[in-house]
Every structure is written in C-alpha cells, then in structure tokens.
UniProtKB/TrEMBL annotation:
<dbReference type="GO" id="GO:0005737">
    <property type="term" value="C:cytoplasm"/>
</dbReference>
<dbReference type="GO" id="GO:0005524">
    <property type="term" value="F:ATP binding"/>
</dbReference>
<dbReference type="InterPro" id="IPR008266">
    <property type="entry name" value="Tyr_kinase_AS"/>
</dbReference>
<dbReference type="Pfam" id="PF07714">
    <property type="entry name" value="PK_Tyr_Ser-Thr"/>
</dbReference>
<feature type="domain" description="Protein kinase">
    <location>
        <begin position="58"/>
        <end position="350"/>
    </location>
</feature>
<dbReference type="InterPro" id="IPR001245">
    <property type="entry name" value="Ser-Thr/Tyr_kinase_cat_dom"/>
</dbReference>
<dbReference type="GO" id="GO:0004672">
    <property type="term" value="F:protein kinase activity"/>
</dbReference>
<protein>
    <submittedName>
        <fullName>Kinase-like protein</fullName>
    </submittedName>
</protein>
<keyword id="KW-0418">Kinase</keyword>
<dbReference type="GO" id="GO:0007165">
    <property type="term" value="P:signal transduction"/>
</dbReference>
<keyword id="KW-0808">Transferase</keyword>
<dbReference type="InterPro" id="IPR000719">
    <property type="entry name" value="Prot_kinase_dom"/>
</dbReference>
<dbReference type="InterPro" id="IPR011009">
    <property type="entry name" value="Kinase-like_dom_sf"/>
</dbReference>
<dbReference type="InterPro" id="IPR050167">
    <property type="entry name" value="Ser_Thr_protein_kinase"/>
</dbReference>
Length: 351
C-alpha cells in the first residue's frame, strides 16, 4: 500500500532533519567547502528497475547486491543534460524511514552523515563518484546514488579470467588510496568486493574504482565507530584480528592509514598471483589468526605458496613485505606504495 500524505510529510520532515543533522555535525562552513552539498535526487528523476517477471501494474523491486548492512538497487537516472544513465542506489538495511523509535532514527542519521561526509569528499578517477541522495517512496529509506558499473566488483571480474593489465589495476588502486589518504580518509574495508571495474571507452583498458565507504573514517576525528565484524577475516590487518569476540572489533582507534596499506598489499598479492591470501597455507582459521597476529614471528604469504603469474612482477614482493609489518606505524605509506609500483613500470608517470 502506498504511503499516505501524512506519512509522506513525516518522511519528508525526517529526511530534512537528517540533512540538517549532516550539516550541523560537521565542521560547519569549512567542512561543507570540502564535502559537496547534498544533491537531492527525486523519484521523478529515477526509475527503479523492477524484478524480472514483475508486473507493470504492481512492480516488485529486489536488490541486485547486498553488503554487510545495505542493499543495492539498480535504476535509470535522468541527467541535467537530458541524457540518462544507469545507477546503483545504496539503501541502509535496518535504518527505516518508518522507524518508530528515536534510536533507529538516530541510526539512520548517523549512517547517512558518516558515509556521505567521507564519500562526498572524493573526486578522483579511481574513486567511484557519489551522485547524490535519492528520496523515493518505494524505498524504505533514502539511498546513496552512484553510477552502475556493468563489470561488477574486482573479485567477480577476476573470476571470469579476462585478459587485463593486473599491475596497472593494482597501481590505479594505490593511486586512489593515496588520494583518499591525502584527504584524511581511512577507507577501512579495502577488499576486491569494494573495488568496481570500469573500462576506458577510448582505450579499451580496464581500471578500478574504490567504493563502499560504510566503514571509513576521517583520520583523527571522532564519530566514526562502525562494527568491523562483517569484514572477511583474511582481509583484516593484524590490529583488527587481535580483537577477540565477544568484544566487537570497530574502526574507532583501530583503523589507520597503515591498516589500509596492509589491506592493499593483500589485494596486490591476489592480483599478481590470482590466489586468495592465506588460502594456500592449508591452516584452520583459528591457527591462521594466531599466526598472523604473532608479533615475534607473524605468518605472511611467501613466493613458495604464491607463485607470480609474471616474473616481471617480482619487484612487488619487497613492496608487499614493507606493507605487512606488524605495527601499522612501521608500514610504508600509500604514497610510497604507489611511487614504488610506478618505478617498477618505467612507462608510467606519477599522478
């Protein structure tokens, strides 16, 4: 049943309250110069894609992808220049506009503020662009809109075994990561699932787009605590693996630029070996966690278990080893990672 006029008004007031809250809880005008003002996208500008077999008279909408706390819907958006493009709409699960408790309403406001404030800072070729905020009666709550990428995430892309420049892909991810760090953004969940793949129509070359800022934070700023227990174990840096249940691992005080660098090194390893990190050792999860977090003799991938797809990528081993230091403070920076990857490929130039 469609919402009544009263419910629509209540939702509208709540959305405006969330937007006002976003502005009020940032650093005022200084922050709003960095973070793009919320662009509200209305239902008139977007047509959600109904589920296959759904009736035109009573369409049903299903997400095409889901994350740890959000669902992603596909839609067509009308652009200002009269053209259209396919977009993805990220809707927070468990943060419903029809929430009856103040706690749940506050949960939605916090998630909107946290992710928009981080994602809205980014303007880079290797970071997925945030288009705006969709307010639509069909969805349970407003959704964050970004352009849809038909090649999907990096994990799915690699599973299809396409021919692509794996080192260039890793280098571009490093370029995007060092840009985020230059903006004081700690991504916090850098895995193949959170890298989308796009193609340059002019050259036909594939390139990555870093996405999903739900676990990100502004470095040395409060208000960005997020439960990290949905992050795959093997992708977590040692400082997060050291958090034992039932004490939930969060990004507050634990995630740093060094944590992102460690996670990137596992991405690099998977790209240049086509093997999932810590799957080749044949150890149980319990043993893996114990050995990875061992400060004296930590378990790390080796050339024996992870042979390179190309001998020309051998220079990457010292880079990865410098990213795997047990202490985040001892790891090289994302800028150093990017520069060293570029030096290993003489034809490239620094961005």
């Amino acid at each position: 049943m469609p919402p009544s006029d009263l419910e629509k008004n209540e939702r509208s007031d709540f959305v405006q309250s969330a937007i006002d809250d976003l502005a009020a809880r940032t650093e005022g005008a200084k922050m709003l110069e960095v973070v793009r003002l919320l662009k509200i996208i209305t239902s008139a500008q977007i047509k959600l894609e109904p589920a296959p077999g759904s009736s035109d008279k009573a369409p049903v909408y299903h997400s095409f992808a889901s994350g740890g706390y959000a669902d992603i819907f596909k839609a067509t958006m009308a652009c200002d220049d009269g053209s259209t493009k396919t977009v993805a709409v990220k809707v927070f699960r468990g943060a419903h506009l029809a929430a009856t408790t103040e706690d749940k309403k506050e949960l939605y406001k916090n998630r909107l503020r946290r992710e928009y404030e981080v994602w809205g800072r980014a303007e880079h070729r290797n970071v997925l662009r945030l288009e705006g905020l969709l307010v639509c009666d069909i969805l349970p709550s407003p959704g964050l809109v970004s352009e849809y990428k038909e090649h999907g995430d990096l994990l799915k892309f690699m599973q299809l075994k396409p021919t692509f420049d794996r080192l260039a892909m890793a280098r571009d991810i490093a370029c995007g990561l060092q840009y985020l760090h230059s903006q004081n953004v700690v991504h916090g969940d850098l895995t193949p699932l959170n890298i989308l793949v796009d193609v340059d129509r002019a050259t036909g070359l594939y390139f990555p787009l870093i996405t999903d800022f739900g676990k990100s934070r502004i470095h040395e700023m409060n208000g960005y605590t997020t439960n990290m227990n949905t992050t795959p174990m093997a992708a977590r840096p040692p400082e997060l693996l050291a958090h034992a249940d039932p004490e939930p691992a969060t990004n507050k005080g634990a995630l740093t630029f060094g944590s992102d660098v460690y996670s990137f090194s596992l991405l690099l390893l998977q790209l240049i070996t086509d093997k999932v990190p810590f799957k080749q050792e044949g150890k149980s999860l319990f043993v893996l966690i114990s050995q990875i977090t061992d400060e004296e003799n930590p378990l790390r991938p080796t050339p024996k278990h992870y042979p390179l797809l190309s001998g020309s990528h051998d220079f990457c081993w010292p880079i990865m080893q410098a990213c795997w230091k047990h202490s985040p403070k001892e790891r090289i920076t994302s800028r150093e990672v990017y520069e060293r990857l570029c030096k290993g490929s003489p034809s490239t130039t620094l961005n």
